[in-house]
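Dear Dr. H.,

I hope your travels went smoothly. While you were away I took the liberty of generating a structure for the chain from your last submission, since the lab meeting agenda had it listed for discussion. I wanted you to have the full record in hand beforehand rather than looking at slides cold. The sequence, exactly as received, is reproduced here:
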Amino acid sequence: MTIRVTVWGENVHEQKNKVVAGIYPDGMHNTIAAALNKAGGISASSVVLQDPEHGMTVEKLAETDVLVWWGHAAHGAVEDKIVERVCDAVWGGMGMIFLHSAHFSKPFKRLMGAPCNLTWREAGERERLWVTSRHHPITRGLPDHFELENEEMYGEPFGVPEPLETVFVSWFQGGEVFRSGLTYRRGAGNIFYFRPGHETYPTYHDGNVQKVIANAVNWAHNPLPRIADPNKAPNVPVGSTLEPVVERGPRLHHDGEEGLR
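The corresponding predicted structure, in token form, is as follows:
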């Protein structure tokens, strides 16, 4: 089975900053998609913020098994109705990978239900990532640690819910540490947050980083059919119960009602 991946890119820094454009002449989104297409068993395409409906049409999400999201400068430009559409897809079973500054993206904050804040510094310092969950599918083929010579620092505390698993932790030259690889389950969807990826450094050209993202795609993929309406909360009338129920007391709702929200 080929896993269908869509890489969502903000595509702002690449258009406005010469350093970023020099490192990623085809855009970060296309660099990530190209690496995934070389990984085997993955068919990746990309969309950007500037596309109609930010590229997140109903049709595109329906044909996406795993969505990879990178954003930074224009989180607020993402329309709320698109955020809800993306979250519905995750609740229904679509896998989701958030990269670097996507910790502050609207979909991530919506799915986490938390501020997702952290400390940070942009100084091009060394980041050392340590594997903290050996034999996890996301760490397959990786050494017990690897380094990125230049990265932006993210430091604890990280204002997210307790994850299912902490797969990586990072150390920075300034002394800070950070939980840099976290897994979650929301509804039927698997979610992975991966910290590295500041736009002014060639992080997405790094072989270990590319392997993490490809492994995460395979981990996040849910092969089961998507839940059509993950927000549905059906009423079960008295007459359709498996065991007999005697109706007692006054009722607020009538049979078949969707209920209050």
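Two observations you may find useful: The longest strand covers residues 119-131. The CA atoms of residues 81 and 116 lie 21 Å apart.

With kind regards,
E. W.
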